[in-house]
Amino acid sequence: MKTTRKIAARLTGVSEELGVTRAQVALAWLLSKPGVAAPIIGTSREEQLDELLNAVDLTLKPEQIAELETPYKQHPVVGFK
């Protein structure tokens, strides 16, 4: 839980620095990951879709990506093998 709060706080910091929403930063981060070609997003309003579409052109700097990823701890993969 503490790690999640740290990540959320850093997400807020990067979004404020860039003047964009946290959702846009999160999607831009996801798009920066190798092997991610088409993230699946879900929206319930047209405004949300417009917001996320603007994230496609958002490029995070390496130091911003590091800021977001530093507190992250990998979790083991669970499920079917």
From TrEMBL:
GO cellular component terms listed in the entry, alphabetical order: cytosol
Q: List the taxonomic lineage.
A: Bacteria, Pseudomonadati, Pseudomonadota, Gammaproteobacteria, Enterobacterales
Pfam families, alphabetized? Aldo_ket_red
GO molecular function of the protein, one example?
oxidoreductase activity
Q: Which UniProt key words apply to this protein?
A: Oxidoreductase
Q: Where is the NADP-dependent oxidoreductase domain?
A: 4-69
Task: Name it.
Answer: Oxidoreductase
What InterPro entries does the entry give? Answer: AKR_Detox_Biosynth, NAD(P)_OxRdtase_dom_sf, NADP_OxRdtase_dom
Q: Which domain of life is it from?
A: Bacteria
